[in-house]
C-alpha cells in the first residue's frame, strides 16, 4: 500500500502483439509485387499484368498491406466505383502464410472508410463460397443475389454461387 496517498498500486501487465501489417491507402506497389501476390493468394502461375496502369486508370482507391519487418507486400485490395453511390471490391488478397491475422479485414475496413469519404453509399463484393465467412462474418457484408454474364467464352466457367434469398434494401441497411 502506498501510505502517502492511501491506495494500493497494482501493476497491470499487458500483452502487446506485433501488428500484422502496415496498411496504406494508395500504397506504392510494383506490377511484379502484385503479380506475385495474386498468384500466391489465388493459387495460379504468375502472369504479367499491367497492374499500375489499371489501378491509375480505373480505381477509386486501393489499399496495400506490408509486413512491418521487411516491407514485403502481404495484402492488397482494389476499389473501383461508378462515380456515384456504388463502390466495388476487387482482388482482395492476402499472402496465404499471413491469412487469419486480420490483415484482410483491415484492408476491407480501410477500403470501406475511403469509399465512404468519397461519397459512396454501397460497397459490393463478389466472392466464392469459400470466402463467405470472411466477407460476411469478418467484414460485415450481407449476401445478396447477383448475376454474372460470361463475355469471353475462352475463359473458365465461374463456379455457381450458393443460393441466397433476395433481401430488401431495408434489410440490407440494418
UniProtKB/TrEMBL annotation:
Chain ranges of the N-acetyltransferase domain: 21-162
Family annotation (Pfam families): Acetyltransf_1
Keywords of this entry: Transferase
Annotated segments matching region Disordered: 151-174
Record bears the keyword Transferase: yes
UniProt cross-references to InterPro entries, sorted A to Z: Acyl_CoA_acyltransferase, GNAT_dom
Entry protein name: GNAT family N-acetyltransferase
Transmembrane segments: none
Keyword Transferase attached: yes
CDD domains: NAT_SF
Entry superkingdom: Bacteria
SUPFAM superfamilies tied to this protein: Acyl-CoA N-acyltransferases (Nat)
Taxon lineage: Bacteria, Bacillati, Actinomycetota, Actinomycetes, Micrococcales
Protein source organism: Ornithinimicrobium ciconiae
MF terms in GO: acyltransferase activity, transferring groups other than amino-acyl groups
UniProt-listed PROSITE patterns: GNAT (PS51186)
